[in-house]
Amino acid sequence: MVIDPTNPDETDNATQEESVWRDGAYLVFRRREPDLPDQCILCNAPAEGKRVTSGVRDPVAILEHARVEVGLCPDHWSKEAWAQRRPWMLGLLGIGLLALADFLSDSGIPFLETVTAFLGILLLAAAGLLAKLKGKLLKAKRVERQFVWLEDIHPNYLAELPDLAEEPETETQA
Question: I need a labelling partner for 96 at 20 to 30 A (CA). Which of 5, 77, 126, 166 fits?
Fold first, then answer.
């Protein structure tokens, strides 16, 4: 049975198996309680229960956003965990250097204080830049009240999902 995500009568009665589809190169699922496979969305390897939660925003309607939990294989999960931790570690190190610079202000060595403070500010700026440039794990094509379309999903992951029969209308067209 093919479910039309834009028809509330069909989606309200849909089972968990009917809440996730592929729409060409896109992953489509219900925002509430999607039953996503326990596979890595980036390489289709078994996720072994490792999941990550990420926020996605509609590229057009900026106010439309959703929190999505997807499976990642241990390798991609580890890379994503480090990518999230790096800016925090740099920021904490920058704060520590600024605290050290304040402590060194009483040492009578102004050059050391200045260099330490400069390095602390530099690390704080690098942490902010790294956090901004890190990129998003998930990229949304469209986010609506009930459904989310994600792109850049591994083709083999999508191949295991039922096909969405026709392109659903957006809420603004309906």
Answer: 77
Give the count of beta carbons closer than 10 Å to the beta carbon of residue 127: 20
C-alpha dihedral sign at 12, 15, 16, 19: negative
Please count the residues of the chain. Answer: 174
* Helices 110-133 + 74-104 axis angle, to 10: 150
Q: Which amino acid is at 143?
A: V
Separation of alpha carbons 46 and 50, rounded Å: 9
Amino acid at 127: A
Question: The pTM is what?
Answer: 0.66
pLDDT digits (tens, 9 = 90+) for 109-157: 778 889 999 999 999 999 999 888 877 778 888 888 888 899 989 999 9
Q: Which residues contact 133 (CB under 8 A, 6 or more apart)?
A: none
CA-to-CA distance for 25 and 36, rounded, in angstroms?
16
